[in-house]
Amino acid sequence: SNTPKIEALPDIQKKTPIIVSTHGSLEVPKQPIANQSGSRYGLKMTWCARFADRIGCWGWRAGDHLNEPRQWTEDEWQDPIMFNMNHMEGEDWADLQKMVSESGHLMHHSHDIADLCNEAVSRWIDIGHEQFDTIFRFRLGGSRRAWGIELGGHFYLIWYERRHKIYPTKKR
Questions:
Q1: Mean of the pLDDT values across residues 101-106?
Q2: Does the pLDDT value for residue 33 go beyond 70?
Q3: How far is CA 62 from the centre of its chain?
Q4: Cα dihedral sign for 152, 153, 154, 157?
Q5: Where are the beta strands (DSSP E) in the chain?
Q6: Across residues 4-16, what is the average pLDDT?
Q7: Which of 166, 164, 156, 172 is nearest to 26 (CA)?
Q8: Hey, which residues does 149 pair with through a beta bridge?
């Protein structure tokens, strides 16, 4: 049937950024199991956009924009961001990190901050995240990516990217 399932709709209030919060003031959502190893494997992925960096623009061109805005549109928030992230929420991190694209590349994985483009590294420091030396990224389809911090199985979305410029790769 084409009737939407109301109970499956996302809780938009819990995903909306809380501007006045700091990392230390947020608790990671409770997990169904205890994982003392420090690994995210065995934990269920949860996420939010409380610390999203949506101010200003990147220095590269993006479609009709001279520079790619960090702020996503309402349409982008609905799909691909919420659609994909809510689809993955509740999955085990181990399973998420095994997912591969049609070309056989891992879709969701960590990167060292130093491997990102210079502009992203500078911005990372400017927004006060220098204590994190790795960043996690989810592939949301095509060249679109969600970049952020994973702590205790919870993903804090920091950047939404449209053009695969934060971690550029060589064309094949």
A1: 89
A2: no
A3: 19
A4: positive
A5: 46-48, 108-112, 134-141, 144-151, 154-161
A6: 46
A7: 156
A8: 156
